[in-house]
Design goal:
This protein is α+β, with helices and mostly antiparallel strands and 472 residues long. The protein has three domains: 176 residues, 2-Layer Sandwich (Beta-Lactamase); 66 residues, Orthogonal Bundle (Helix Hairpins), CATH 1.10.287; 145 residues, Histidine kinase-like ATPase, C-terminal domain (Heat Shock Protein 90, 2-Layer Sandwich), CATH 3.30.565.10. The protein is built from ten helices and 14 strands. Strand 5 and strand 6 form a beta hairpin. It starts with a helix and ends with a strand.
């Protein structure tokens, strides 16, 4: 199981458990909260009515007052209100008044007048100066039939002379409780789903970032070029930087060791030739032989210098993972400069140079690297083209790329050598001198082409050899 999935599962479990506990706790508080708010309203109503009924209770005229008719009409009212999108078409409060003995004097329902309510807590506690309230089921077998009763004392000169009780059935509150619970469930569920979606997006982003970094590490371990993933701040940027630093350190150490061994091996031959010629020059010999051995020392020194310079250029390219710049290079202008620098060699061999480059054709990449790569190809072609031969350069554009073809009339490349031409230090004898080159030119070209995202092909064709570069 991937790390991102594990993180998402832990996050989802946390969201689910948190949502469950929060919702369950809030849901448990909805019903008592609504009832407590209703009870507070009943207390205010009961105390208001206690003041309204005080004079009639004191004078004993409550039964003959207009309040019987008022309460009857009150019970018949149709409010026609809409509360929280819920209709309210009838009043639900019941109001009754008892005297100091607990006998009902007035009842809005008209059912309990004359009955003894002195044992009910709303009357019993209020007559004793305490807060009187009770909740009683109208149907003992139905828990939803409970009715809240709140009493308020009727006082005359500090003496309790009666009690006003306001009762409200809990069933009238149930629609509002259920609506609040439904809305809480919807909002809570929506927030949980939103949290899970955000968690999934975060997990996908983290997984994608880690996959990019993993692909980069795999490409580096396999010796392939890859672009380092870039992140904006945070631990991922630090991890990316650490991986790149580790790659540089590890590759640098192995690279130096390999190049030290390679350079040591390749320098043995010219050093031996220089040492042998120097020892011979210490003896007496004709001027012609002395001149020949001195020329050998100069040629081997030049060969060593060329080897070192090409190794440095190759090392620079091989260590690169991406281009440092990408500029537009007019191809015709670049080829004119390269051919102009080799005009003497062309004239000395009597070569016929043909160039067919479409106007306005340009390469996209680093100027120095592309110039060096094309220069190596031209030098290689000049080394193998016989006197009076043909050198043909063509360039066309297709599918967003530029195809550069370099043909030179020369002997075909042996089949065994074709797959090895781009290997480091592999070289064939030059027909003009019989000597081999450093074997780094085509290897450098291949590295430059790969760094630019192109392709290099070398094949024998009718009448000679053709090199094809496909570049952006």
């Amino acid at each position: 199981m991937s790390l991102s999935i594990r993180i998402f599962l832990v996050y989802a479990a946390f969201i689910a458990l948190t949502g469950y506990f929060v919702l369950s706790t809030v849901m448990k508080e909805v019903r008592p909260g609504v009832r407590q708010s209703t009870e507070e309203t009943l207390v205010d109503t009961a105390n208001l009515l206690a003041e309204i009924f005080r004079r009639d209770v004191r004078d004993g005229t409550l039964g003959q007052s207009r309040f019987n008719e008022v309460l009857r009409d009150y019970g018949l009212r149709k409010p026609g209100a809409t509360i929280w999108e819920l209709p309210k078409d009838q009043v639900n409060n019941r109001i009754y008044v008892t005297d100091a003995r607990g006998i009902v004097l007035l009842d809005s329902s008209g059912e309990a007048v004359g009955q003894d309510y002195s044992r009910w807590n709303d009357v019993y506690l209020t007559l004793r100066g305490q807060y009187g309230a009770r909740s009683t089921r109208s149907d003992p077998d139905d828990p939803n039939s409970s009715v809240m009763h709140v009493g308020a004392p009727i006082r005359d000169q500090g003496r309790i002379i009666g009690v006003v009780t306001v009762a409200k059935p809990n069933s009238s509150l149930q629609p509002y409780i259920e609506r609040a619970e439904r809305r809480l469930l919807w909002y809570g569920g929506g927030l949980m789903v939103l949290g899970l979606l955000l968690g999934a997006v975060f997990s996908w982003w983290l997984s994608s970032a880690l996959r990019r970094l993993t692909r980069y590490a795999q490409a580096v371990s396999e010796g392939r070029r890859a672009e380092l993933p870039h992140y904006r701040g945070g631990e991922l940027q630090q991890l990316s930087g650490a991986v790149e630093h580790m790659r540089v350190q590890l590759e640098g150490k192995a690279y130096v060791e390999r190049y030290v061994h390679t350079l040591t091996h390749e320098l043995k031959s010219p050093l031996a030739a220089i040492r042998g010629a120097a020892e011979l020059l210490q003896d007496e010999m004709p001027p012609e032989q002395r001149q020949r051995f001195a020329g050998n020392i100069e040629d081997e020194s030049r060969r060593m210098q060329q080897l070192i310079e090409r190794l440095l250029n190759l090392a620079m390219v091989e260590q690169r993972q991406a281009l440092e710049e990408r500029v537009s290079l007019p191809l015709a202008e670049l080829l004119d400069d390269l051919l102009g620098a080799r005009q003497l060699a062309v004239e000395r061999l009597g070569l016929r140079v043909e160039r067919q480059v479409a106007a306005g054709l340009a390469l996209q990449g680093e100027r120095f690297l592309l110039s060096q790569a094309l220069a190596n190809l031209l030098d290689n072609a000049l080394d193998f083209t016989p006197a009076g031969g043909v050198l043909c350069i063509e360039a066309v554009s297709y599918a967003g790329q530029v195809r550069v073809s370099l043909f030179n009339s020369a002997a075909p490349i042996p089949d065994y050598a074709l797959p090895r031409l781009c290997e480091r230090f592999y070289s064939l004898p030059r027909p003009h001198t019989g000597r081999k080159s450093t074997g780094l030119g085509l290897n450098f070209v291949a590295e430059v082409v790969q760094l630019h995202g192109g392709a290099l092909h070398i094949d024998n064709v009718e009448g000679g050899v053709q090199v094809v570069l496909d570049l952006p």
